């Protein structure tokens, strides 16, 4: 694996060098044609993707995250460099979520990265299945540590001993903490940037309440924030629902999630989870308090998280054959302004118009930059910023200058509009809003077209073969879910439950389970998944 990654890294460096070396000739060839010129520039500069999204999705994805300058491969398999183009997206989502949880009186904190073996194993049942994924530090310099130290894969065992210490009486409740941090899970299945990496960034919220009803309420409040991150920021439709007993977090009482779907691979993907832990951890970590009546009671706990995986889902859902497509709300550059010089044009006037456009839009609150580099042709710049997914491109040439207008080109559908300078702010605002909505609508249409409602096993197998996300009536029995997994095992991976949507269609009396023939209890989404 490592050698493949390094090779990709090298290949990328090479094409980067090539594009710089050829930039000048790109400029020259620009002057000769409007029509065929662009293709020629692409070829010469090495811009453009060599894999198509619909033909070779996996390769397309690896290529687009690197060429879009979000990720750089690293020499440790499953670890990736998050470049500024990625971090800005993460910071925007972080700012939203952080402000929202502060409104809920949740406070930020930071617990150590390292876990002592005693603490890690304190809660055996929880750790058991995960043990092979825990990474350990065993040496400092040349000497073995007396006691090896684990790196947190999640922070329950790190935090809860202190919850036990800090919570004494009902006045200490609720205790609502969150931390933004990295975690390490030494996974052995195929790593994919953002989607499955050995180190990733997330927030983990851990809260404790006096009553179950307070905990229940918070679970859904947080889940709604996760829905909003996906739908309002990343423009990705998700299904809110409850995980099956088999798929829930084993240490908890119940797990809720937002589930997204990747049409190209026909796989569901868990977008974020919000768990009610019940009193299981309170029991193990002795998190007790004296209630209002003066009796000893156990706290009710929740935990919830979303990670940088969100960004991978965004790339997979919106990206196209020209590269990334960023929803305006999370794009670090929402508008890129590009001067279009012609022979004998007043270059200074064009540059001034570009700067004025950037300033006007920045002052209006948009994230705007101009690409005034003189060693790249306009065509090269178009491809470059398309690859990086910038939602809107503004071109300014002599004709635009003469007409006091700019030309705006949408990344999502290539639509071109001439905008009079006097309407600039209003029209750019409308276009960005429109792009954000269009991306969501297009993604939802595509996702919905992948949903099949089935009633029988034969229909289920047929739909699974067509890479669908399947809504089926189910008896809700663990044995039946295990049986479905066993019966669908194959190269592509088995089908499992994604979630039972909160929004349940009507289940007519007498409906039977698609897999067992027993009475159905609920509608559940099934599919292959990440
Ligand atoms: C499950 C559960 C939970 C806090 C969340 O989903 C929200 C934020 N944590 C995480 N999980 C593990 O408990 C786990 C434990 C170990 Cl030791 C491990 F190596 C991997 C794990 N992966 C997931």
Automatic annotation (TrEMBL):
SUPFAM superfamilies: C-terminal domain of ProRS, Class II aaRS ABD-related, Class II aaRS and biotin synthetases. Its EC number is 6.1.1.15. Residues 1-45 are annotated as: Disordered. It catalyses: tRNA(Pro) + L-proline + ATP = L-prolyl-tRNA(Pro) + AMP + diphosphate. It is an enzyme of class 6 (ligase). GO terms for biological process: prolyl-tRNA aminoacylation. One of its GO terms (molecular function) is ATP binding. Keywords: Aminoacyl-tRNA synthetase, ATP-binding, Ligase, Nucleotide-binding, Protein biosynthesis. Pfam families: HGTP_anticodon, ProRS-C_1, tRNA-synt_2b. GO terms for cellular component: aminoacyl-tRNA synthetase multienzyme complex; cytoplasm. It comes from the Eukaryota. InterPro entries: aa-tRNA-synt_IIb, aa-tRNA-synth_II, aa-tRNA-synth_II/BPL/LPL, Anticodon-bd, Anticodon-bd_dom_sf, Pro-tRNA-ligase_IIa, Pro-tRNA-ligase_IIa_arc-type, Pro-tRNA_ligase_II_C. Residues 1-30 have a biased composition (Basic and acidic residues). PANTHER family: BIFUNCTIONAL GLUTAMATE_PROLINE--TRNA LIGASE, PROLYL-TRNA SYNTHETASE. This is proline--tRNA ligase. It comes from Tetracentron sinense (Spur-leaf).
């Amino acid at each position: 694996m490592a050698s493949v990654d390094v090779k990709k890294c090298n290949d990328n460096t090479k094409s980067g060098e090539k594009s710089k070396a050829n930039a000048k000739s790109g400029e020259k060839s620009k002057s000769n044609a409007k029509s065929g010129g662009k293709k020629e520039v692409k070829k010469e500069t090495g811009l453009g993707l060599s894999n198509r999204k619909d033909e070779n999705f996996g390769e397309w994805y690896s290529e687009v995250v690197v060429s879009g300058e979000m990720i750089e491969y690293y020499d440790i398999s499953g670890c990736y460099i998050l470049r500024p183009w990625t971090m800005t997206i993460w910071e925007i989502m972080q700012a939203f979520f952080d402000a929202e949880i502060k409104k809920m009186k949740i406070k930020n904190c930071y617990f150590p990265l390292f876990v002592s073996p005693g603490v890690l194993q304190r809660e055996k049942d929880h750790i058991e299945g995960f043990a092979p994924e825990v990474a350990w530090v065993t040496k400092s310099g040349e000497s073995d540590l007396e006691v090896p130290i684990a790196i947190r894969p999640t922070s329950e065992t790190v935090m809860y001993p202190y919850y036990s210490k800090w919570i004494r009486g009902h006045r200490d409740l609720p205790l609502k903490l969150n931390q933004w941090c990295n975690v390490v899970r030494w996974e052995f299945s195929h790593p994919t940037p953002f989607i499955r990496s050995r180190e990733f960034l997330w927030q983990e919220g851990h809260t404790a309440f006096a009553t179950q009803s307070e905990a229940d309420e918070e679970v859904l409040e947080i889940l709604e924030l996760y829905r909003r991150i996906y739908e309002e920021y990343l423009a990705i439709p998700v299904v809110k629902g409850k995980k099956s007993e088999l798929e829930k977090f084993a240490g908890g009482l119940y797990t809720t999630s937002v589930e997204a779907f990747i049409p190209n691979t026909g796989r569901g993907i868990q977008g974020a989870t919000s768990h009610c832990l019940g009193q299981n951890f309170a029991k193990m970590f002795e998190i007790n308090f004296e209630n209002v009546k003066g009796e000893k009671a156990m706290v009710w706990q929740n935990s919830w998280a979303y990670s940088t995986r969100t960004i991978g889902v965004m790339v997979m859902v919106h990206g196209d054959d020209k590269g990334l497509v960023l929803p305006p709300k999370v794009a670090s550059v929402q508008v890129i302004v590009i001067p279009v010089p012609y022979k004998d044009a007043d270059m200074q006037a064009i540059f001034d118009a570009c700067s004025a456009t950037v300033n006007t839009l920045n002052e209006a609150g948009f994230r705007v930059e101009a690409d005034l580099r003189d060693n790249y042709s306009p065509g090269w710049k178009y491809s470059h910023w398309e690859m990086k997914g910038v939602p809107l491109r503004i071109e300014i040439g002599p004709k635009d200058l003469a007409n006091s207008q700019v030309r705006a080109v949408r990344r999502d559908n290539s639509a071109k509009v001439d905008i009079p300078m006097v309407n600039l702010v209003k029209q750019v605002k409308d276009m960005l809003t429109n792009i954000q909505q269009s991306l969501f609508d297009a993604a939802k249409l595509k996702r919905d077209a992948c949903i099949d409602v089935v009633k029988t096993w034969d229909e289920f197998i047929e739909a699974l073969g067509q890479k669908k996300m399947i809504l089926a009536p189910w008896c809700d029995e663990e044995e039946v879910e295990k049986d479905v997994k066993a019966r669908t095992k194959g190269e592509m991976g088995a089908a499992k439950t994604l979630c039972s949507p909160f929004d349940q269609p009507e289940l007519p009396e007498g409906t039977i389970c698609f897999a067992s023939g027993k009475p159905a209890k609920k509608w559940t989404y099934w599919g292959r998944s990440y």
